[in-house]
Input
Amino acid sequence: MNEFRPASPEKPIVDDKPIIGGKSVGRTIPHDSAVGHVTGSAPYIDDLPRRVDELYVDFVGSPVASGAVTSLETEQASALDGVVAVFTYKDVGKHNVFGPLFCDEPFLAAEEVLYVGQPVVLIAAENETVLAEAKSLIRINVKETAPVLELEKAIASENFIGPKRQIGRGDAETAISGATHQLSGEFRSGGQEQFYLESQAAVAFPGEQGQLVVHSSTQNTTEIQTMVAEVLELQMHQVVCICKRMGGAFGGKETQAVIPALMAALVASKTGRAARVIYDKDTDMSVTGKRHPYLCRWRVGFEDNGQIVGLECDFFSDGGAAADLSTSVMERTLLHADNAYFIEHARFTGQVCRTNIPPNTAFRGFGGPQAVASTENIIQRVAEYLKVDALDVRLKNAYGTDDRNVTPYGQLLTGNHLTEIMQTLAQTSDYRQRQEAIAAQNETDPLWLRGLAMAPVKFGISFTSKFLNQANALVNVYTDGTVQVSTGGTEMGQGLNTKIRQIVADEFGIDWQNVILMPTSTEKNNNTSPTAASAGTDLNGAAAVNACREIRTRLAQFAAGLFASTDDGLIPSPDHICFEGGVVYDSRKPNETISFAELTLKARFERVDIGARGFYKTPGVDFNRETGKGNPFLYFTQGAAVAEVKIDRFTGDVSVPRVDLLMDIGKSINPGVDLGQITGGFIQGMGWATAECLVYGDDGRLLSHSPTTYKIPAITDVPIDFRCELFPNEDNLHCVRRSKAVGEPPLLLGVAAWAAVKHALAQLSSQLPGDVDPNLQLPATGEEVLRCLTEISAG
Ligand code: MTE
Ligand code: LUZ
Ligand code: MOS
Output
C-alpha cells in the first residue's frame, strides 16, 4: 500500500510509486455534466422545482452613484395585491453590513448609497407580474453627491481601501538611475465582466428551529452559510448552503453570490415561505463586481543588452464601493509583477482605490493578469527602445534554474521551465521566421498591419491567505461497490467533479462510472474554502485521496484475512492486497480475486466502516504580509503563448489569425478537460486584452450592461489556427498524481495577443525619428488601436 502523505516543498512525495490499478487518471473521460450541458438536462438554480408557497423576489437599486437617502416611498408597492413583503435595511437588524475580508459592505443600503443599482428595497410577491408592478411603484429619494469615478480622483483625495502594500528587493531607485537606459510611463488595464451564463441566483427554504436551506450559485458554500447566519442573526448550524453546479463563475461567485443569497434568505426567514432570487442578465452586469481596472505608474532601468536592472511599479486598482476581495487581489498583483523575470532590484507598491461603482471582485487570474500585462508592456517598450526582438529581452531576463531564481518576495523557484518553454515554443511556432516575414509584409501591405509576440506566464498556486489552503472530503462506499464523493469544491464547468471522479476511481481500482460526485453542501463538508485560486483539484482531490486511503487501509486489512484464511499457509498481509480492475486480490496469489463490490458487501456484514472523511492542508506555504517575504505558493504553473495579430490599418480592428500555446500543467488528470480550460482561458484573456470594454456614463451608470453592448469573444474571434500543446513534465510531486493547477493561468496568456498589437504598432512608429510611443493601453480595442495609428501617422 502506498501511503498518501501530503507533499512538502522540502520533502516532496505523493506519487513515487504508480497507483495500483490506476486507469482513469490521465485519460480524457467525458465531463460529468457533458450530456447534461448539451441537452439542457443539467439543472441550475432556477431549474429547481417551484414550491407551491414560493415567493418571487427582486430588488430596487439606487438611482444614483452617490448620495444620501432622504426618503423611501414603499407604501404603494406594499399595498398592491399579491405583494407579500417589502423590506429595507430597517428589517435587517444590526448586522446589515458584511464582507469577506473587511466588514464594510451594506446588504441593503441604509443612509447612503454608493453605486448605481445598489440594492435598497427588497420586494417579495406572489408572481412576476405583480413584482414588476411593485418595483415601478418604489421611490428612492436621494440627495446626490459628486461620485468618485476616476482612479486619479480617488488617488488625489486619498480615497483608499486598506493600507498601501509593498513588495520588493534591493534598491530599485538607485539601480534604475544607475542603469544605461531608463524608461517610464503609465499603463492602464480595463475591467472585465465575468459573463457567466447563469446569473447570480439563490433559492431559500425555511425549516424548523429557525433553519434555512439556501441553494446558491456560489463558489463558496461556507461563505454563504456564514454570511446568511451573521446577517440574519442565526447560528451557523441553522444554515445549510447547497450548490449542485454553477453555469460559470470565473471568480464572480467567489463572494458576490452573497447578496442574492441574503435576499432569498431574508424573505424566507421573515415570511416562512420559500423565496427565489434570479438576477436578469442586465441587472447582473450592472450591479455586480468585475475584474479591477488598474493604473500602473512604472519606471525601468536597463542595459544595452536588454538586461533589466531595476523596476518600480506603483499599482492602483479600482476597488469600487467596498473592499470585497480587493486587497487580496492587489496582493496577488504584487506577487506577479515579476512575471517570468528575475529582477534584482524591484519595488512594487499597491493601493486599492475606493470609487462609486459596484465593489470589484475576483476574476480568473485575480490581479495576476493586470500585473503581467503591465510587465509585458514594459518588456515590449524596452525591446522597441533598443530596437531588438522582444523575445530576446524576455529570454535575457527570464528566471534561471541555478541562479537568478529567487523572486522579489524571497521564494526560491523550483521546477522552473520558463526558458525551456519559451525556446521550445519559439521553435514550434516558427517565431523568428515569422517575425521576419511579418516585418517584410508590413513594409508593403497597404491594408493590414501585422504583429507577433510571445508572452510567458508563471502563476503562483495557493491562496495567498494561508488558512484557505485546506479542504475536506467525504467518501461513502456502498455495498454494491459504488462510491459517492462530496467535497467543499464546487463545479462551475471547470471539470473538478470529473477529475475527482477519476482520482477516486483509481484509488479503489474501479471504473470511473462507479463514482459519482454529489452536490456541494455545508451539511457534508464544513468550513470550506472557495473553489478558487485554481486549487480546486489540488485541495479537494487530495482530501478525497486521504479519505479513500483510510477506507482502503481498512478494506485491505479485512481482505487480507479473507485471502489468507484459505488453507495455503500465507500470513495475512494488508500490504499485499491490491485494488485493480474492479477486483481485489493478494499479490502473492493473483489468480484468486474478489470483486470490489463483493468485498464491500462482506465488509459491511463484518462491520467494517467503508466511509471516511479526509482532510488536506497545503504544506509549506507561508507568507509574511508585514515584511512582504516568504513562500506564498506551493509551486507555479507556467506556460507561454505566441500570438499573431492582423490589424485593419483603416479601422484599427484587430483579429488574431494564429496562436501557439505551450503550457506546463504537470501530468494532466484529464487532458480533454485541461485543454478545454487552456483554450477557454486563453480566449477569455484575449477578450480582456483586445476587445472587452466597460463603458460608464458620467453619472457612474454602466452603459455596456448587456451582450449587445459588451463584446466578449465569439466563435468567429477564435484563431483559425490555434495550436495548443502540453509541456511534458512529471516533476510536480506536490500534487495529486503529479498534476498541476490549470484553471486561471492560461487566461494570462491572452496578454500575448495584446503584446502582438503593441508589436504591430511599433513596426510603424519605429519608422519615425526618435522614440515615438503611442502608449497602447489595454484593452487594445479597435478604437484604442485607431487612436494609436492616428497618433503615429501624425508623427
Ligand atoms: N472554467 C469554467 N468552465 N467555468 C468557470 O467558471 N472558473 C475559473 C477556472 N475555470 C471557471 C473555469 C476560475 S476563476 C478558477 S479559480 C478555476 O476554474 C476554479 O476551479 P479549479 O480550482 O477547480 O480549477
Ligand atoms: N482568492 C483568494 C483567490 O481569496 N485568495 C487568492 O489568493 C486567490 N487567488 C486566485 C483566485 N482567488
Ligand atoms: Mo477564480 S478568480 O480564483 O475564482
Remarks:
- The first strand starts at residue 55 and ends at 61.
- The mean pLDDT is 96.
- The CA atoms of residues 653 and 782 lie 4 Å apart.
